[in-house]
Amino acid sequence: MSDTQELKVREKQEVASPAEQTKPGLVFTPSVDIFETDKSLTLLVDMPGVKTDDLDVDLRDDTLTLTGDVSPLLATPGEKVFVEYETGRYYRQFSLSEVIAQDKIDAKLSDGVLRLTLPKVEKATPRRIAVQSE
């Protein structure tokens, strides 16, 4: 890292409601890193505090929608002096192209990071086509 760059902690970014919410609370955009190989795309989605039971990965009409709820931390005895931990819902959508094999998408949640593997469709194997005469 150069001297002019700083390492900054990215806070949960609140976004405008993606649609009319029926559930009160804040909505956050999770940070996402995307990596590509010849065979797949990998998305690493930062969702700290989300448990597997509170995570929904939905694929509909070529749109991949991620939602995850962050529950409040366990209550501790005593008066709150300072609280930075925000609860709410993570929400992010991705439009998928025809190169993604949608029926083979894999999702794993570990230590607050959702790893989505989006395999690409296999291209037709090149082959020589024999021409027959009549």
What proportion of the residues is helical, as a percent range? under 10%
What is the CA-atom radius of gyration, in angstroms? 21 Å
The portion of residues forming beta strands comes to: 35-45%
The CA-CA distance between the termini, in Å, is 69 Å
Pfam families: HSP20 (PF00011)
Protein name: Molecular chaperone
Domain CS: 27-129
Family: Belongs to the small heat shock protein (HSP20) family.
Structure explained in plain terms:
InterPro entries: A-crystallin/Hsp20_dom, CS_dom, HSP20-like_chaperone, Small_HSP. With 134 residues, this protein is mainly beta. The strands form 2 sheets. It has a 5-stranded mixed β-sheet, with no helix packed on it. A 4-stranded antiparallel β-sheet has the order 3-4-9-8, with no helix packed on it. It is elongated, with a radius of gyration of 21 Å.
